[in-house]
Design brief:
heterodimer, A: alpha+beta, 8-stranded mixed β-sheet, 5-stranded mixed beta barrel, B: alpha+beta, PmbA/TldD fold, 2 domains, globular
C-alpha cells in the first residue's frame, strides 16, 4: 500500500502542490432489515477507493477514484493539483493548515466478537424472533421492523508531511420498531432502544447481543397499543424531561452542529447553514445554565465518534465546547484552527468514504454527566412530561429555532409517572432552552450512536455519537402539532 | 461521444451467467459509472473543489422467494465474481419473502433521444471553467450592491451511465449529463445580515443561467434588510416554485409512495378517489417529459417510465409503485422503483403541478395579509399519517399587506397539514424560465398557511 500512497504524494508534490495527503479506504457494510417477517434488506456492501487532497497556489483541490491502480493514482493526483490551482485563483488568503506532528501509527477499534465473522443466519434468526414476537403480541400490531447493521472502515492515511496511519473502525448495532393500528385511530409507533434503525457502538457483535432486542419486544408492542387510546399531548408551557434517546438528538442539533467551526466560518452557508455561535461570542456567550457542560471527545470507548486519528491525521482528543454554561470552544480542522488562531485542531475532520473530502464532523458530543439519579429527578418534578424516542426534528439554518417530536410521553404528577400522552412535541430557541436545564442525571448516562448525520455538498452521511443521561428543562413550549385542523 | 454501453452490458451478462450457474433462479444487476465534479463557494472564494470517479455494481439474486443482494465498487471480473457469489450465498440463507412474485418481465421503452440527455459541453467542462464560472457569479453578486458580503453555493456537473439487466430479459441502458448552480448570497449593512438564494439546473452546463442566478440571489439578499418580527398565526401565502417544490418532495415520499401507503405511514392511505385538495390542484409524474428536471425512460429495476396522474382536480388518483409494491396491491408497476444500497422505495421523481393563469405579481397584488416565501429549510414530518409537516423559511421571506410587499421578516417556522393548506388554492402561476427546483412547479397562492413560531 505504501508504494501507492507514496506515488500519490510524489506526483502531487511534483505537480506543484505544497501539501498533499491520500486516503485509501475500504468500507464493508452488512445491512439486514426484517419487516413483518419478510426480508426487506439483506445486503453486503464493499466499497474501495481513494481520495487525494492537495494544496497548490493557495487553493485546495480534491479528487478521487474507485480504481486503485498506479496509473489512476497518477491521473487523480494530477487532477487534484489542477483543481487546487484553479481554486487558488479566487482565494484572497492562501489556505494554511495549523501545525500537527506527523504520526506513523496503527489504530483498531477494540472488539470482542467480529460481527463479520458471525454467521448471517444467526443475525437473521435473532431479528426474525424479535419480529415474530411483536407480530404475535396483538392483532393491533400491523407493522414490525427489526434491524441489524455492522460497518467496518479500513483506511490508510498518508501525507506529504510524513504521516502514515492505518486504522480499522468497526461499529455494530440495531433496533426494533412496531406500529399499532386500530380502526380509524391514528397509527402509533414505538421503537427500542431508539428509533431510526436503533442504537450503534464502536464495538463488535457483543454490542448487538447486549441490546437484547427480543426482550424489548413486549414493551414496544404494549406501549404502541397503549398510545392508540392515549390522550393528546396538551399545548402550553411545561416542565420537560428528556430521555437519553431524545436528549442525544437535542445535543446533536442544538449543540453539535452550531459548534462546527466550518459552519461558523461560512463554508456550509449554502446548504446546512451557518451558526449563531460567531467568534465574538467565544468565551462570552452564556449558552445554558451552569449545569451545562458539553465536550467533543473522540477518545471515549464505544462512541461512533471514537477513533485513533481523524482524516487529517490528527490524534483523537477531548475539547470543551460549553463549560459551566459558557460557550468556550469549537469543533475544528487544521484549516479552520488556523483561521481562528487556535493552537490545534479538535480532530474533527472525517469523510464518509474515500471519494469524499473530509469535513468537520461531530465526534462524540457529550453532555457531561450531572449529579442526579433518574428516579430522583422524576420524584423531584411536581408537574411535567417525560418525552422519549425521537420521531421528528427540524431546526433552522443558524441552529436556533428547533422543534422536535417524540414517539411517546408520560405525564408526571407529584413526582410520579402518570398517563401516556401521544404525539408529544416541543419547541424552543437554543440558548434559552439550555438556560432552562436545571437537572441532568449520572446513573443512566451513556453513549448513543447514530450513523445518520448529513452534511456537505456532495452530501455525506457520517456516524456520530452523544453521551447523555436524562435532563430536565423548565417552562418549555409543548404541543405544537396541528391536529384536528382540517 | 464515447460511452461504455458495451462494457457495461458485457459485465452485466457476465454477472447473470455466474448467478445462474450458482443456482439463482432470478437475478437483477445494475452497473453504473459516474464522473462528477462540484465546486463549492463560501465567503466569495472557491472553498472546496472536488471530482469523483465511481463504478458501482448492485446484484440482487433470488433463489425461489429467497433474496440476497450485494453492492460493490469494483469493475474487475474477479471481484465481481466474488460479489455475485456473496449475493447467492446470502439468498441461500435468507428466509422466503412471501410477497415476492417475480422480477419484472421485459416491456418496450419510450426511448429519449441521446441528444436530449447528454451534453458534450457538460462532459467537457473542466476545473478551470468551473473556476471561471465561480469568479463570474462572485463578481456579479458583488456588483449588485456594496452590502453583499459573501457568495456561497455550488457549481456542479456530471456524467452518469448505467445498465440494468435481469435474467428475465430486461436490458436497459441510459446515459445522461447534468449540471447545477445554487447560490446563497449573504449581505450585511452593519446592523443585520440578510440572505438570498436562487438556483438553476440543466443537462448542458453552458446553458446554466449563471448571471441571472447571481443577480436574483444578490437582489433577494439586499431586499432582506429591515427584517421585522411578526406574530405566529395563519397567513395568506405566496410560495415561489422552489418553496412549493420543497414541500412536494415530502408529499412524494410520505404521501404518494406505495411503500409508505402499505406501511401505514402515508396520509394518502385509503384516499384513492377521495377529494383531498383544491380542484385547482393537479399533479402528475412524467420522467419522459422534456421539461422535467430528472428525465429517464426506465426506473431502477428497468421498468418503463410513463406518465401517471397522482392528483386530478384535487382527487387522489394513484400511488407510485414498483413491481414489488404493485404486486401487493394487485396493480401494475408505475415505474417508480428507487434503489439505494439494496434498499428500495418507490416514489415520484419527476412531478409536475399543473399551471394556472396567474403570475407572482398578480398573486402579490391579490394578497391582503400574507407572506412571500423564497424556499424552505429542514422540512420534516411531524405526523405523516395526518400529513402534518414542519419546516423553516430561508433566504428571503417578505410580508405582503394590501397587495404590496411591505418588509422582510425573520425566519418563520410553519407547522401545517397538506390537506388543510392545499384544501383551498387561490391562484396558480406559470412555470418559471429558470429551473430552480427539483419538480416542475409553478408559484402558488394559498389563503391560509400556519406559521407556528418565529425566530426573534
Amino acid at each position: 500500500m505504501k508504494d501507492l500512497t507514496q506515488k500519490a504524494l510524489d506526483v502531487s508534490i511534483g505537480q506543484g502542490a505544497s501539501y498533499a495527503d491520500i486516503r485509501i479506504v475500504t468500507i464493508t457494510d452488512e445491512d439486514i432489515t426484517i419487516k413483518r417477517g419478510n426480508i426487506d434488506v439483506l445486503n453486503l456492501t464493499t466499497r474501495t477507493g481513494f481520495g487525494i487532497r492537495t494544496i497548490a497556489n493557495g487553493g485546495l483541490g480534491f479528487a478521487g477514484s474507485y480504481l486503485l491502480e498506479p496509473r489512476e493514482i497518477e491521473r487523480v493526483a494530477k487532477l487534484a493539483v489542477r483543481i487546487a490551482k484553479a481554486s487558488g485563483v479566487t482565494r484572497k488568503i492562501p489556505i494554511r493548515l495549523v501545525e500537527e506532528k506527523a504520526v506513523v501509527d496503527t489504530y483498531k477499534t477494540s472488539i470482542q466478537k467480529d460481527p463479520f465473522l458471525v454467521p448471517t443466519e444467526e443475525k437473521i434468526s435473532l431479528l426474525m424472533e424479535a419480529d415474530k414476537r411483536m407480530q404475535d403480541f396483538s392483532d393491533k400490531v400491523k407493522m414490525t421492523e427489526s434491524d441489524f447493521r455492522a460497518f467496518r472502515e479500513d483506511k490508510v492515511f498518508a501525507s506529504s508531511e510524513g504521516a502514515y496511519i492505518t486504522q480499522q473502525i468497526t461499529f455494530c448495532g440495531g433496533g426494533i420498531s412496531c406500529t399499532a393500528i386500530e380502526g380509524g385511530k391514528q397509527p402509533q409507533t414505538r421503537s427500542l432502544p431508539t428509533s431510526f434503525r436503533g442504537d450503534f457502538s464502536t464495538q463488535g457483535y457483543e454490542y448487538f447481543e447486549q441490546l437484547h432486542l427480543v426482550d424489548l419486544t413486549d414493551k414496544a408492542a404494549t406501549e404502541a397499543i397503549a398510545l392508540l387510546d392515549a390522550k393528546q399531548c396538551p399545548s402550553g408551557k411545561e416542565n420537560l424531561i428528556l430521555d437519553g434517546n431524545q436528549l442525544m438528538l437535542q445535543v446533536h442539533e442544538s449543540c453539535g452542529h452550531p459548534t462546527e467551526l466550518d459552519r461558523v466560518l461560512g463554508t456550509e452557508a449554502a446548504y446546512a447553514g451557518t451558526s449563531f455561535l460567531t467568534p465574538d461570542l467565544l468565551g462570552n456567550l452564556k449558552y445554558g445554565s451552569d449545569l451545562v457542560n458539553i465536550t467533543a471527545d473522540s477518545t471515549i470507548p464505544g462512541g461512533l465518534g471514537t477513533f485513533g486519528y481523524d482524516d487529517e491525521g490528527v490524534s483523537a482528543r477531548r475539547t470543551e465546547l460549553i463549560k459551566d454554561g459558557l460557550f468556550v470552544g469549537y469543533q475544528s480542522s487544521r484549516e479552520t484552527a488556523t483561521i481562528l488562531g487556535l493552537e490545534r485542531s479538535s480532530a474533527g475532520m472525517r469523510a464518509d468514504n474515500a471519494q469524499h473530502i473530509p469535513l468537520i464532523r461531530m465526534v462524540n458530543i457529550n453532555l457531561e454527566p450531572g449529579d442526579w439519579k433518574r428516579d430522583e429527578l422524576i420524584a423531584d418534578t411536581k408537574h411535567g412530561i417525560l418525552l422519549s424516542t425521537n420521531k421528528s426534528w427540524s431546526i433552522d439554518d443558524k441552529r436556533l429555532n428547533f422543534q422536535f417530536g417524540t414517539e411517546i410521553a408520560w405525564e408526571i404528577v407529584d413526582g410520579e409517572l402518570g398517563q401516556i400522552l401521544k404525539n408529544p412535541t416541543y419547541a424552543g430557541i437554543t440558548p434559552e432552552f439550555w438556560g432552562e436545564m436545571d437537572a441532568h442525571t449520572k446513573d443512566d448516562w451513556r453513549i448513543w450512536g447514530t450513523p445518520n448525520c448529513g452534511k456537505g455538498q456532495p452530501g455525506q452521511i457520517m456516524y456520530v455519537a452523544h453521551g447523555v443521561g436524562t435532563a430536565r428543562f423548565r417552562n418549555i413550549d409543548i404541543g405544537i402539532t396541528k391536529e384536528g385542523r382540517k | 461521444m464515447e460511452f461504455h454501453k458495451n462494457l457495461l452490458t458485457e459485465k452485466a451478462k457476465f454477472i447473470l451467467r455466474i448467478a445462474e450457474k450458482l443456482g439463482a433462479t432470478q437475478t437483477e444487476v445494475t452497473i453504473g459509472l459516474q464522473k462528477s465534479a462540484l465546486t463549492r463557494l463560501a465567503n466569495s472564494i472557491i472553498d472546496q473543489n472536488v471530482e469523483e470517479n465511481h463504478a458501482t455494481i448492485q446484484t440482487v439474486t433470488y433463489i425461489g422467494k429467497k433474496k440476497g443482494s450485494t453492492s460493490v465498487e469494483v469493475m474487475d471480473n474477479k471481484s465481481i465474481e466474488k460479489a455475485v457469489e456473496n449475493a447467492v450465498k446470502i439468498a441461500k440463507i435468507s428466509p422466503e419473502d412471501k410477497n415476492f412474485h417475480s422480477l419484472p418481465e421485459p416491456l418496450s421503452y419510450t426511448h429519449i433521444p441521446l441528444k436530449e440527455l447528454v451534453s458534450k459541453n457538460t462532459m467537457n467542462t473542466n476545473p478551470e471553467q468551473r473556476a471561471e464560472s465561480a469568479k463570474l457569479v462572485i463578481d456579479i453578486a458583488h456588483s449588485i450592491d456594496d452590502r453583499i458580503k459573501a457568495v456561497a453555493g455550488a457549481i456542479s456537473h456530471g456524467l452518469a451511465e448505467r445498465v440494468i439487466m435481469n435474467s428475465l430479459g430486461i436490458e436497459a441502458y441510459e446515459v445522461g449529463t447534468y449540471s447545477n448552480i445554487n447560490l446563497t448570497i449573504l449581505a450585511e449593512d452593519g446592523k443585520e445580515q440578510a440572505a438570498g438564494w436562487y438556483a438553476d439546473q440543466n443537462m448542458d452546463f453552458s446553458k446554466l443561467h449563471l448571471n441571472e442566478v447571481a443577480e436574483i440571489a444578490a437582489k433577494k439578499a439586499v431586499d432582506g434588510f429591515g427584517m421585522q418580527i411578526i406574530e405566529p398565526r395563519d397567513y395568506e401565502v405566496v410560495m415561489e416554485p422552489a418553496a412549493f417544490s420543497g414541500l412536494l418532495l415530502f408529499m412524494a415520499y410520505f404521501g404518494f409512495s406505495a411503500a409508505m401507503v402499505q406501511e401505514y405511514v402515508s396520509f394518502l392511505r385509503e384516499k384513492i378517489g377521495s377529494k383531498l385538495f383544491s380542484e385547482k390542484f393537479n399533479v402528475w409524474d412524467d420522467a419522459l417529459d422534456k421539461r422535467a428536471t430528472f428525465r429517464a425512460f426506465f426506473d431502477d429495476e428497468g421498468y418503463p417510465k410513463s406518465k401517471i396522474n397522482l392528483v386530478e382536480k384535487g382527487v387522489i388518483r394513484n400511488y407510485a409503485y414498483d413491481s414489488y409494491t404493485a404486486r401487493k396491491d394487485g396493480v401494475k408497476s408505475t415505474g417508480h422503483h428507487n434503489k439505494e444500497e439494496g434498499r428500495a422505495l418507490p416514489f415520484p421523481t419527476s412531478m409536475f403541478v399543473g399551471e394556472g393563469d396567474s403570475n407572482l405579481e398578480e398573486m402579490i397584488a391579490e394578497t391582503k395579509d400574507g407572506l412571500l416565501i423564497t424556499h424552505f429549510h429542514y422540512q420534516n414530518a411531524v405526523s405523516p399519517t395526518e400529513g402534518i409537516f414542519t419546516g423553516l423559511t430561508r433566504d428571503g421571506t417578505w410580508k405582503i399587506e394590501n397587495g404590496e410587499i411591505k418588509y422582510p421578516v425573520r425566519t418563520l417556522r410553519f407547522t401545517d397539514a397538506f390537506p388543510r393548506f392545499l384544501g383551498t388554492i387561490n391562484l396558480i402561476g406559470k412555470y418559471q424560465p429558470i429551473n430552480s427546483q427539483a419538480y416542475k412547479v409553478p408559484p402558488i397562492k394559498l389563503p391560509s398557511f400556519t406559521i407556528s413560531s418565529i425566530q426573534k
